[in-house]
Amino acid sequence: MRLHRLDITAFGPFGSTQSVDFGELSAAGLFLLHGPTGAGKTSVLDAVCYALYGSVPGARQSGQGMALRSDHAAPGTRTEVTLELTVAGRRLEITRQPPWERPKKRGTGTTLDKAQTWLRERDAASGTWKDLSRSHQEIGEEITQLLGMSREQFCQVVLLPQGDFARFLRADAEARGKLLGRLFDTRRFADVEKRLAERRRTAESRVRDGDAELLADAHRMQQAAGGTMELPGLTPGEPGLAEAVLGAAAVARSTAREQLTAARCRLAAAESAQTAADGALDGIRERNRLQRRFAEARERAARLEERSGAHREAEARMERARKAETVAPALELRDAAETEHRRAAAAETHARAALPASLADAGAAGLAAAARRAAEELGGLESARRAERRLTELRDERAGLERQERADEEVLQEAETWLAGWEQTRAVLQTGIASAQQAATRAGELAARRDPALRRLDAARTRDRLAGETDAAAEQVRTAREEALTARQLWLDLKEQRLNGIAAELAAGLVDGEPCAVCGATEHPVPARKVDGHVDRETEERALAESRRADERHADAERRLGTVREALAAASAEAGDTPTGELAHAVEDLERQYARERDAAAQLHSAQERLRSAEHEHGLRITAQREAAVRAGSRVGHRERMDRERAALESELTQARGEATSVAARAAQLEQGAERLTAAADAARAAEETAQRLKKADARLADAAFRAGFDTPGAAADALLDDAEHRELQRLLDAWQHEEAAVRAVLAEPETAAAAQQPPADLATAQRAADDAGRRVREAASARDAAARRCAELDRLSARATASVRRLGPLREEYDRVARMAGLAAGTSADNERRMRLESYVLAARLEQVAAAATVRLHRMSSGRYTLVHSDDRTGRGRSGLGLHVVDAWTGRERDTATLSGGETFFASLALALGLADVVTDEAGGVRLDTLFIDEGFGSLDDQTLDEVLDVLDSLRERDRSVGIVSHVADLRRRIHAQLEVVKGRSGSRLRQHGDG
After folding, report:
1. 427 Cβ neighbours under 8 A, 6+ residues apart
2. pLDDT tens-place string over residues 435-454
3. d(Cα 661, Cα 220) in Å, to the nearest integer?
4. What is the rounded distance in angstroms from the CA atom of residue 29 to the CA atom of residue 33?
5. Are the C-beta atoms of 818 and 199 separated by less than 8 Å?
6. 3-state SS of the chain: helix, strand, coil percent to 5?
7. What is the pLDDT of residues 24-77, one digit of tens each?
């Protein structure tokens, strides 16, 4: 990790924007950050930590959020920190803005803006910055993953606080363990210790549970055996319990099998008796059925004898119907011929009624001859018909000429009248067009002024409306803020109440014999109880959910307020300060003028159209005058030709129509007469033909009736049956025959006749005997099943008890093994001579690595005198593992680090800090740390030691590192040329960078 640039605005003591070019400072390898006490040297390091992790180092945790803001900053300047760095080969830029309570844009008071975070990455190919994220959580996870260190590790490894390491040198084993545990994250080893302890308790509980389960199975076997089994008087965990339970189970199983054998014998005897009783019952039922069958057959035979006379009559009727069916075709033919003859005679009578009296009695041949004569006379009138039609056409043409003459006279008179006022009409229309064109010009000028005025009026109205909405939105924000604070306070109160009563909530889940989740005890003599008003988890979660919803409503209200304010500013910028009423009055005046000129301009098109129409009408009038004069001349010759043709046609028609009113009337008379004569002739011939066919049908019918045995055709017709009557009669005859055959078959059965000769069957007595036998079988079967279930249950429980005994052996072995491991990891086992916990053991290994890495630099700083070594000796009755001693090469003795002087403690803690930085870096995945800061402590060194310490720090450049020393020691300003000076002033501190080494 290498820092490049840091920009600070309104942060800590810095009221304005200050920049640090770490690239220039790092070029020298070693640079000095100095300034007066309280000027803000540590605030520069706080800004680096805040940019990376969103918070400052642990000792200054109270300076989070809005408290990070500089008191020297202007009210409108927002606090911001921007850090540019390279980590894992990526050039990144992080910008963070803490929450800011800024002045309101409108009115008085302040409003709170949320914290903001941006993460960008520089694209080396294009040389541009690319946005990665604006999420606090995503950016925090990304930076932590890239650095491989938490905030606490970063503050110990990169921002080396010498005071903390001086205290580390003098601390006891427990305090060192806490610091090393945070840096190396050894919680997993502490979790292993807890896991082993839990497994020990679990294994112990499982052993006891196994014995309790075995004893419970023994009680179940005693219950299944019916109380005949004796249980051993032992408790879970006592030796011999398994053998005693298995022995008692074997005795109980043997007794149960003897009882099962006896129950099976009793069941076999009861089943034999039931089989005999069921056989006797079946015999009685069969004899009763046959006796009832014989009695029913005798009754059916008697009913057939009573209906025998009706049966013989039905047979005779069916025979006559079969004979009549042979005469049916002749009957149908005669009826058809009679119907046809009646229709033909009626048609002949109707046709003769329309004939003249002279032809009323004429035959078919005479009527046909008269029809031919009428047709010939009709053909001779066709020429007269054409002449009559032509005469009608001539009359129509003469009437048309007269109508044209009257119309042309009207056209001429109207055209002369219209053309007389043409010049005056054209002048008026041209004047109207000129006036409309002038109005259109004025309307365009007013429209150009009207649109901006309307937009300004709309903006003014929007401004007035949004002003009211802004006040309402501000009130909603205030209400939502109060509701959010109230809901959060309620949730905190409920959470506090729940935490106060958490013991009762945990006690509700305690079960006797099971370990407590807090202390691990299996006995719970006095569990805590819930008091009135106890708050459970659901109540707290509901309050938390409501608090979050209230926060969301508050945020929504603030967003709405910001949106309304932005819209109000835009409307005010467009409308200006002019009152809405004044703008509306000006717009109304413009609207009235514009409407008046627009209406006048709208007449331009209609005026032009009227002029064009008038000019067109003028041309039409002139043309109509000329055409009317031409038509008048041509009508004179046409009228003379029609008069001559009409006289010739009238003479021809007078001769052709005779006494009729017209030729058409004469032709209609002849045509109607011919049609009537033709129809009468056809009807006479049809009547003669149907009379002959009827006579032949009567002769065939009489012959068929005689051959069928009937005296007359009427008797044969009466004997016929329709389809429904025939089917019903046949059904009755078939039913009689079927019933007679069935009765004879039943009466002829030998078994039925034999059963009728025996005494009546006693079915009730046989049924009672069979029911008694069945009841005895069910009782015996129930006893057999109960004995079988008893044996099966005893076998099952015995097998289960045997399996439980087998499982208990490995469980006891596992318990012994886990208990030994848990005691060893916890440092309570006798095998752990130094009483060192597993986590302490791991930390001791890390401390040994740190001491070895620190010794390399301490040996050089102390001119080869001191060496740091790790010690795992016990101190008093406490546990060992985290001791730290210093070996003095001058005396050859090993002593505690607490005996070092002030200067010795400084360079020892500096060496320890640098060594710890190397070890933690390797632990974090080998992330390269190219920039380090060392905070204070150099004032306690003499000149020689200071030179040696600076040489060690300067040697870090060999690994391409840059080290920043935070100190106000004046001698360092002469020795280190690259400097970042913090200058303190009444208006806030500022940074001054100079020197390049």
Report:
1. none
2. 877 877 877 777 777 788 78
3. 135
4. 13
5. yes
6. 70, 10, 20
7. 888 877 888 888 888 888 888 889 989 988 888 765 555 455 678 888 888 888
